[in-house]
Known about the structure:
The protein has helices spanning 6-11, 15-32, 34-37, 43-57, 70-80, 85-97, 119-140, 144-150, 153-167, 170-173, 177-183, 188-197, 216-223, 227-239, 258-293; strands at residues 101-103, 115-117, 208-213, 243-247, 251-257. The protein is mainly α. The radius of gyration is 20 Å and the shape is globular. The two termini are 26 Å apart.
Amino acid sequence: MPQLTRASIAAHALFPAIEKQIAQHLIAIHNETPRLARLKASHRKWLMTHAMFALSLSRRDDDPMSGLTATRFIEIVMRLGAASRNTATAYLAELFAYKFLRDVPDVPDRRVRVFETTEVANAAMMRWFIGHMACLDRLDGGDREATTIADPRIFKLGQPIAAEILVEDPLWRDPPDTIGHFLWSDLGGMVLHDLITRLGDFDRAAPRTPVGPVTLAELSEIYMISTTNLKRMFKKAESEDLLGWDLPRRRGNLWLSRRFIEDYFTWQSAKFAALDVAYRESLRQLTIAQDAAA
């Protein structure tokens, strides 16, 4: 199968359907592991989480000092401009407190702490990865999901590859302003996923697409976000005619503009394209390893 490109993914007739599918998948993960999901709920935290996982999964058995250390993590976070040194340090401490990270035992140099992600954290990230593989399969009839489930090494190799691509990708790292004020807010990403799940069959060329009745009170209750923060997210989008309600005072059906939807889809296509590259590169590496062993 030919590699899927950003443009081919975004333009695919089924892309709105898989966007709805992955949004529902991510909301399900959030509902089942809300504490862990909150660590990826803003785009800043997403960047830190995937950088942290990539370091942890890249640890090699033949190098006990490799993998995730505070110094390596902070260097990456600072280089990306994702957070300050203090925020990155506090983030690692939070992961420890929630038992999503632990110390690697028997590290030769006792002056250095090497960390690893725990089973519960790995299971959630594996589920995230496989959910995206299932969506990619719908685009070209592939078997990424089944293959990854059968050989989890694909995930272990693929997540760091995808993370490296995405944290260095200007489009993914700095989302368009149309959706950025949601994504940079805590749990704003979940709000965007929620809005996408409400899309039915719609005309992508239409200036506006109705998504049914939506209230800020409802979103506040579902995702445990203050209405003040929600009002701030929506006010900017409303002022730029990116979304709005049929009736005054945010009553009636909510509509999303074509620009809002397409900017979100274009941004998401970068993630799916990176994951397709990661999957294919993981298979290539495993084939090379098998050939060498043979």
